[in-house]
Amino acid sequence: MYELFEHTADLGLRATAPNIDALFAEMAACLCAAILEDPTSVRPTIAESIEIAGTDREFLLFDWLKELLYRFDAEHQVFSRFEVSVRQDGLTATAWGEPLDPERHLLNHEVKAITYHELSVVPTDGGWRAEVIVDI
């Protein structure tokens, strides 16, 4: 489960999940919901493999979201489904989506950057919670 929340001039992303793999997938979905008005408009026709090295969970989440934002900004890719495997030394993921189609993919917010502000990945009773602020 994820949610967007207002944060001064920025936007917050927050998610909870039963395990850390699902948490990183939820945060990716949350980022896509921040970028697109209707993330369900994205057809999962192309699978993109992503590998990121890192041992710190917070920095790994930052790099994961930054990679997805880069693929949106530079390659004009939008995603709707994610499968993530977080390891001690990084993550391996598959993101399914398609090229941005401005007629079908209406933009919600212009996410300029992922920030370190209030970045957290913490265990909770029965699961995990993550939060990050994005610059809009």
From TrEMBL:
Q: Which Gene3D superfamilies match?
A: Archease domain
User: Which GO molecular-function terms appear in the entry?
Assistant: metal ion binding
Q: Which InterPro entries match?
A: Archease, Archease_dom, Archease_dom_sf
Biological process (GO) annotations held by this record are: tRNA processing
**Locate the Archease domain: which residues?**
2-136
Is Transit peptide included in the keywords of this UniProt record? Answer: no
What are the entry keywords?
Answer: Calcium, Metal-binding, tRNA processing
Q: Which family does it belong to?
A: Belongs to the archease family.
This protein is called Archease domain-containing protein
